[in-house]
Write a structure and sequence with these properties.
The chain is mainly α and about 260 residues long. It has twelve helices and no strands.
């Protein structure tokens, strides 16, 4: 497994898109966090008293991750489908004929990369957002902040692994991104808050995972709330991720390269 992990890391590192997608993930998340924070700060005095009382600085802190995640999804698609695009998948499967082991190495290598990216992106995003919010910001030790930051790291890791499973099923970057980018972008922009589709959309992986980052309303909110808590939401997202990875393994196991 060590040799397999090394091989997978070489594949990831040799992709020209890897460094750009990693930089874009961090840059989008951090840069937009500061802009969103500054926007909330500028408009704070113009809010109603009720809006100021219910203002949650963690919403402004982690909302940028809903856009930064898109670059991470693109990276997962390229990492998984690159061998299919170049035709080197046949060589890889000859070198590692046990397909479960091959897929496990790819998932583990990519998952560790996603964890590393999350551990850099989330603290930097938090700091940038608080700089933008100024006196209306929060601290890392305030109530809910550590849990939200941990949840954000888990969210980014799970979304990468979810994209990995989907990419292994579809085996091409274009169909993978054609499915995931509209789904995640529309979901992030409030698909789960549209009354007619909320009953279903609120259980989509990104919608469920957002609750822990304070990107959904309180449980009693009829429009923006969710009928589950933050950790149950992450659990729902983890189930989606597990299902996607299982489907990816089955596709790899039963289809020719």
């Amino acid at each position: 497994m060590t040799a397999l992990m090394t091989a997978e890391w070489i594949k990831i590192r040799s992709l020209r898109s890897t460094i750009w997608m990693l930089v874009l993930t961090v840059a989008l998340s951090v840069g937009l966090a500061y802009l969103f924070g500054s926007s909330f700060r500028a408009g704070f005095d113009g809010m109603t008293a009720q809006a100021r009382a219910s203002f949650d600085p963690l919403f402004a802190t982690f909302y940028s991750l809903t856009l930064g995640q898109l670059a991470l999804v693109v990276l997962a698609a390229f990492v998984v489908t690159g061998e299919y695009s170049t035709g080197t998948i046949s060589t890889s499967l000859v070198a590692v004929p046990r397909r479960g082991r091959f897929f496990g190495g790819k998932v583990l290598a990519g998952g560790l990369l996603a964890v590393a990216v999350a551990l850099v992106t989330v603290p930097a995003t938090f700091a940038a957002a608080q700089a933008g919010l100024g006196p209306h910001g929060t601290t890392f030790t305030s109530a809910g902040a550590p849990e939200a930051a941990l949840g954000a790291c888990l969210y980014l890791t799970l979304i990468y692994l979810f994209a990995t499973g989907v990419a292994m099923v579809l085996r091409g970057p274009i169909p993978t991104l054609a499915l995931l980018l509209p789904l995640l972008f529309l979901g992030s922009q409030g698909l789960g808050n549209v009354p007619r589709v909320k009953a279903v959309a609120q259980y989509l992986p990104d919608q469920a995972g957002m609750v822990v980052m304070h990107l959904a309303g309180p449980a009693g909110d009829p429009r923006f709330g969710r009928p589950y808590g933050p950790w149950l939401g992450l659990g729902i997202m983890a189930l989606w991720t597990g299902a996607a990875l299982l489907a990816g393994y089955v596709a790899l196991r039963h289809r020719d390269a």
